[in-house]
Amino acid sequence: MVKSYRKPYRVKRKKSIFLNRLLWLGALFFFIISAIFYFLFFLEVFQVEKIIVTGEKKVAKEDLGLLVGEKLERKILFFKTKSIFAVDTQNIKKDILNSFPNISEVEISRGFPDALNIVVVERLGLTIWCQEEQCFLLDGEGVIFDPVRNDIPDGVEEIPQKVRIIDRQQNINSLKLGDKVIEKEKLNQILDIESKLRDNLKIPLTALEIISEERLNIETFEGWKIYFNSEGDIGWQLTKLRAVLEEEILPENRKNLEYIDLRFGNLAPYRYKD
């Protein structure tokens, strides 16, 4: 008997329609993301071309623009771009503040499609800070930002109506522009004393000397000095000063004074020049 053999029947599997769609959707998604990526970072219309600086007075606008221009270019996937979307505004802001001590605040915004708007606020010199032979303008935050001549000839005022604060502690080895040399609270106290002496007691000053954390010497326009305890009750010390000037020292004798010491207790000892 002859046996016949049949080849086994194999069913061909059809390719999944779902898999085909997934591949197509993946390809479409990749294409869309690539298009958006190119559109945002490499399209010519979004490359920064204009740097608009406002608010500057002493700082040169050209110098600011040059600094910012050098920080615009970045690399993305080995390609260079100046896209407005890729600009690191925080890093640029930090560089501006570090490079220009005269500037206290910076605001950077994007002006679409190709501009950066930079608004700067420059420091306002409240008074002058001196240490040894170096003098600088000092702002309200206690930061020095502009050198001032210390060898001004007699009769010449380089910066009028600004009293010098002289640091005698010598606790800063080398000063550089942008350094914070005094805490804001301490500075406000010193300026408040100066204001009350000038406006309330009509005593014009030429300098305020920080001798130590506790001692503040004030030099008057008439040449005599006032010794304050800056850690003590300033109001009470001013009250003692007013009393001794009104009750014990005649106005015409002030020019002969050497000092009035307000630092201790209820007394305000004073001394005339020899």
Helix/sheet category: alpha/beta
How many separate domains? 2
Q: Provide the CATH architecture of the largest domain.
A: 3-Layer(aba) Sandwich
Q: Ranges with pLDDT <50 over ≥5 residues?
A: 153-160
Look at the structure and name the CATH superfamily of the largest domain: Cell division protein FtsQ/DivIB
How many β-strand stretches?
14
**For this structure, what is the CATH class of the largest domain?**
Alpha Beta
H/E element order:
HEHEEHEEEEEEHEEEHEE
What summary fits the major beta sheet? Answer: 9 strands, mixed
Give the N-to-C terminal Cα separation.
Answer: 151 Å
CATH third-tier fold name of the largest domain: Rossmann fold
Estimate the strand proportion: 25-35%
Record the strand order, biggest sheet.
8-7-6-9-10-11-12-13-14
Please tell me the overall pLDDT: 87
Give the overall shape: elongated
Radius of gyration: 35 Å
